[in-house]
Amino acid sequence: MSVTTSSDRRPSRKKRLTIVIAGVSAIVLIVIVSIFTGGHVTNGSEPTNALVGKSMRTFSLSGLKSGTVEAPWKSHHAAVLIFFASFCGPCKSEMPKVANYIRHHNEGSIRVIGIDALDSRGPAKAFVKESGVTFPIAFDPNGTVTTGIFQFAYVPETVFVSAKGILKQVYYGAIPKNVLVKGIAALRA
Question: Domain 60-188's class?
Answer without folding.
Answer: alpha beta
